[in-house]
């Protein structure tokens, strides 16, 4: 029995499902998860000492690759001074200034400790600011597990076939309206039905929790116009896309200015961090300046701030452009080897994220099309790739991530493995 299997058996008796976050359990692909020993650069190593080329990157943050020396040093140095104070520190200002420099629409920034906290807080602020109860989200988009947002959600909720969770009172869920991603008409219809009730639209600018779906031309601009027309706020949830689709996030890539932005895992460089921010005018409504309450004992934690600042500083170099180049190389390469082996495959990518779909459809641009793809084929492919030492996200509904540490050789080895796997499907 492998050590991973041994640990998984042991874990299941003390941790629900053996994991502290659902998709990790490999429910989406079958079999037990790998237990990880360590990670370095583009590679993770399991407890059985096998090395894998990693396209999960801790679900996004490892844009620089694992265990980047500057981040490791920042964490160790910061730890010398103590782990948490619950009082202001200068590093929080420097970090907020760095985020603001890279994402200028975030004129003011509030740090939190996860993506869920960021989106939950941004939604409360939008509701408090507009004095309206309803929110609009898109089917298949995931914004963390806060009550209002776990309605027709993507990611693990979709993988487990429970897009709307029990435990959320119908009285809460009724305030969450859902529209179809890349379909402006479905958004307009909801605003026409509730012209004075919708506080905000929250959207992943590139949907990454139902595989990877870039926005159709004009979709994000259309959302901006609808929000302006009806006095609602536009929240871009850049927990996944921030610093990944472009250094300035998807908002820079697609040239769209949101009222609020949410950020997550990426800005911690691997530490638990999130943030939300927007114009002074809106952010002034947050406590202690304004009446909308939001707080966190460990928010702005000094270790996390130092790690995050080191990560953002290391990303902010000309080498960053390589991320999109490498991603394109892998995505186009996958398409090519699929063609060569006669496997119908659609591929999407944006900046440093990508997705592939086993389907005859030439392009996958919406949730319905995602659901029509061949998940069984994905499961088989996933395990064949794992055997070849390639670690993909263990679900057909998650985006893949590259890092700057992935080498040409890594990409080429991945394509060789993929060709072999495709031919065995
Ligand atoms: N928003 C998006 C777009 C996400 O992808 C995620 C997590 N994958 C979240 C919010 C929630 O972040 P966290 O898991 O840190 O709570």
Tell me, briefly, the overall form.
Answer: globular
CATH homology superfamily of the largest domain:
Type I PLP-dependent aspartate aminotransferase-like (Major domain)
Sheet of most strands = 7 strands, mixed
Spans where pLDDT lies below 50 across 5 or more residues: none
Count of strand segments: 14
Rg result? 21 Å
What does this protein structure show overall?
The chain has 425 residues and is α/β, with parallel strands linked by helices. It has two domains: 3-67 and 318-424, Aspartate Aminotransferase, domain 1; 69-315, Aspartate Aminotransferase, domain 2 (3-Layer(aba) Sandwich). Helices cover 37% and strands 15% of the residues. The strands form three sheets. Strands 4-10-9-8-7-5-6 form a seven-stranded mixed sheet, with helices on both faces. Strands 1-2-3-13 form a four-stranded mixed sheet. Strands 11-12-14 form a three-stranded antiparallel sheet. The longest helix is centred in the last third of the chain and has 20 residues, at 321-340. The relative contact order is 0.17. 4'-deoxy-4'-aminopyridoxal-5'-phosphate binds next to helix 4. It is an enzyme of class 5 (isomerase).
List keywords for this structure.
425 residues; alpha/beta; Aspartate Aminotransferase, domain 1; Aspartate Aminotransferase, domain 2; 2 domains; seven-stranded mixed sheet; four-stranded mixed sheet; 15 helices; 14 strands; 37% helix; 15% strand; globular; binds 4'-deoxy-4'-aminopyridoxal-5'-phosphate; Glutamate-1-semialdehyde 2,1-aminomutase; cytoplasm
């Amino acid at each position: 029995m492998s050590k991973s299997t041994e640990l998984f058996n042991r874990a299941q008796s003390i941790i629900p499902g053996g994991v502290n976050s659902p998709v990790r359990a490999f429910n989406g692909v079958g079999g037990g998860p790998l237990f990880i020993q360590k990670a370095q650069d583009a590679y993770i190593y399991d407890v059985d000492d096998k090395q894998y080329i990693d396209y999960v990157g801790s679900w996004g943050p490892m844009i620089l690759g694992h265990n980047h020396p500057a981040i490791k040093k920042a964490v160790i140095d910061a730890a010398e001074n103590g782990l948490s104070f619950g009082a202001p520190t200068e590093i929080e200002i420097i970090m907020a200034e760095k985020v603001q420099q890279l994402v200028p629409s975030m004129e003011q920034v509030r740090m939190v400790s996860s993506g869920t906290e960021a989106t939950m807080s941004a939604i409360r602020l939008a509701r408090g600011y507009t004095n309206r109860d309803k929110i609009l989200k898109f089917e298949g988009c995931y914004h963390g597990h806060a009550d209002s947002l776990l309605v027709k959600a993507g990611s693990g909720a979709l993988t487990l076939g429970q897009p709307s969770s029990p435990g959320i009172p119908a009285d809460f869920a009724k305030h969450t309206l859902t529209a179809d991603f890349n379909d402006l008409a479905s958004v307009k219809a909801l605003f026409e039905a509730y012209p004075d009730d919708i506080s905000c639209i929250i959207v992943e600018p590139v949907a990454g929790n139902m595989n990877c779906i870039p926005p159709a031309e004009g979709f994000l601009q259309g959302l901006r116009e609808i929000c302006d027309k009806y006095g609602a706020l536009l929240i871009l949830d850049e927990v996944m896309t921030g610093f990944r689709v472009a250094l300035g996030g998807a908002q820079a890539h697609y040239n769209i200015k949101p009222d609020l932005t949410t950020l997550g895992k990426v800005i911690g460089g691997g530490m638990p961090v999130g943030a939300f921010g927007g114009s002074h005018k809106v952010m002034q409504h947050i406590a202690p300046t304004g009446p909308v309450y939001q707080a966190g004992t460990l928010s702005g934690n000094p270790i996390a701030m130092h790690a995050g600042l080191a990560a953002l500083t290391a990303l902010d170099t000309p080498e960053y452009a390589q991320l999109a180049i490498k991603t394109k190389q892998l995505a186009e390469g996958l398409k090519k080897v699929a063609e060569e082996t006669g496997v119908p495959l659609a591929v999407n990518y944006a900046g440093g994220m990508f997705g592939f779909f086993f389907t005859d459809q030439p392009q996958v641009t919406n949730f319905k099309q995602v659901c029509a793809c061949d998940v069984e084929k994905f499961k088989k492919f996933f395990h064949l790739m794992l055997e070849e030492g390639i670690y993909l996200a263990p679900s057909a509904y998650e985006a893949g991530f590259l890092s700057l540490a992935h080498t040409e050789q890594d990409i080429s080895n991945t394509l060789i493995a993929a060709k072999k796997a495709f031919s065995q499907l």
